[in-house]
What does this fold into?
Amino acid sequence: MTPAELAALLAFHAEAGVEWLLEDDPVDRIAAFAAEKAARQANRPAAAATAPAGPAAASRNVPARTAGDQRQQARPQPSQSSALPAIPDENAIAEARFAAESARSLAELKTAVEGFASCNLKTSARSTITAAGSASSGIMVIGPMPSADDDREGLPFSGRAGLLLDRMLAAIGQSRETVLITTIIPWRPPGDRMPSGPETAICRPFIERQIALTEPRQVLVLGNFAARFFFGETGTIHALRGKWREIGTGGGSLPAMATLHPQELLTAPASKALAWMDLLAFSERLPKA
It folds into this structure.
């Protein structure tokens, strides 16, 4: 492969969540298989003529292992006893609620989330994603969960989707420096899968506490998952977008509007017109300069 093709392949594996190699040194599995097959064929007549029946014969007919196989076998295999003990979902939710409610500022909440260890998503993520930006405009932008770019950079809405979000904010006179940007789930799920119900329930106290501490005047919700999370409905983003709704914060409610996620707009550019309509409606409530 050319360097460009190899770089594209590695980027594809990284986006798919492949982060670990199985061997320290490369092993030619095709050559090893061919050698094992040739050895079996060469030994089969002699083994059939001279080997006695019973378990001992079977042990002598096992093909020789390659150096790579021996290294793999020598490595300690994970066992059930060495894994971290599983925490019941209800206990993890209670721990998350206590940690969130104990925070008296966004800085304290960031420390609490980074130190929280009762959600399995954290074990596979590289970064813990918390709120970034400023609440000076009274606007809070909330997405679903971190992407691979977010996980690498340690910031919400990185990469191409982040650049598109920057342009969307600029279109209504805002920027990353004037709004608070965050995600519902602090850790990227493996392979960018959707979070499970228990995982979402464990993370809920943290995002609700972020909203309570920020006290935004209005919230822009991005994508299917986030819209369903806050509105409690099962429709698609195309059914939930563009309408003002009230979301609960524990201490009251505040206006929120959902629109398409920047990643969805990159996949389906024709939907940008819908997002633009939503942004215009969202900006009508912004204080006039």
